[in-house]
Amino acid sequence: MTDEPTIDEQDGDFVQSLDRGLSVIRAFDADHASLSLSEVAAATGLSRAAARRFLHTLVHLGYMRGNDGRFTLRPKILELGYAYLSSLTLPEVAMPHMEELVEEVRESSSVSELDGEDVVYIARVPTKRIMTMTISVGTRFPAYATSMGRVLLAAQPEDWLERYLAAVSLHGLTGRTITSPGGLRQELRKIRGRGWALVDQELEEGLRSLAAPIRNGDGRVVAAINVSTHAGRRSLESIVRDLLHPLLATAERIGRDLTATPGRRNPAWGTARPT
């Protein structure tokens, strides 16, 4: 930046010294992890004297380390981002990652939570419409017939699961839907062991869906993320081959962002109420 004021800087509430101090922090990135005083001055447009004052202030406050004439950021700098991250809801954390996933695989993606016997959609990034049913945030489906629902069911304690299986009505939504408690229990054991679920046309004919768990910093499953596709477009083998790795990587990235703010808790995350 230069010393010439911009239109925004003409505002009487604009604090130019704060703007300059933040420009010093922004000068550091993955390609410039260590900078000298001269390099910081050149990157920010500040004089050497001004750059020196900002750098030594940041060192004094613990946000930066100075050693042999070079400066690096310290972990305390992450605190500046924690306040923003801690204000985000799970859908807000997940959406940027979901958008990247959809762009990569060209299939729709959703995130849901378990609420009683249903999954509730809390975030969605669609591509082409592949279902006759309209899906939006707030849509509910029976957990037993969906990939995300099965991931969430598989994460529940055994006593909860037994109460669920004793109470749920397993209706055949298509000719492929698992409708016996024993069959569903066996499928959930398989999902628990491998860490993901694949459902083939059990909710709706033609719909195939792959889901993975989203875990918080304690390792607890708080939500599930899926990618869904049409049976005429992808075989089961190609779904696992082409979509599983990107899906698991996305779930892990969302979990890492949740873990970045361990003090944040949403009581609804991962809450399941068996009937």
Q: Your description of this structure?
A:
This protein has 275 residues and is of the alpha+beta class. Helix content is 41%, strand content 19%. The protein is built from nine helices and nine strands. It has helices at 16-26, 37-44, 48-61, 79-86, 90-105, 147-154, 158-167, 181-194, 236-259, and strands spanning 34-36, 64-67, 70-73, 108-115, 118-125, 140-142, 197-200, 207-215, 221-230. Strands 6-5-4-9-8-7 form a six-stranded antiparallel beta sheet. Strands 1-3-2 form a three-stranded antiparallel beta sheet. It is elongated and about 75 Å long. It starts with 15 loop residues before the first helix and ends in a 16-residue tail after the last helix.
Short key terms for the protein model shown above:
three-stranded antiparallel beta sheet; 41% helix; elongated; alpha+beta; 275 residues; six-stranded antiparallel beta sheet
Task: Name the shape in a single word.
Answer: elongated
Number of helices: 9
Biggest β-sheet: strands ordered side by side in the sheet? 6-5-4-9-8-7
User: What low-confidence regions span 5 or more consecutive residues with pLDDT below 50?
Assistant: 1-7, 262-275
Number of strands: 9
Q: What is the distance, rounded to the nearest whole angstrom, between the alpha carbons of the first and last residues? A: 61 Å
Q: Name the structural class.
A: alpha+beta
Secondary structure: helix percent: 40-55%
Average pLDDT for all residues? 86
What Rg do the Cα atoms give? 25 Å
Query: Approximately how much beta-strand content do the residues carry?
Result: 15-25%
Q: Biggest β-sheet, characterized?
A: 6 strands, antiparallel
Topology as H/E string? Answer: HEHHEEHHEEEHHHEEEH
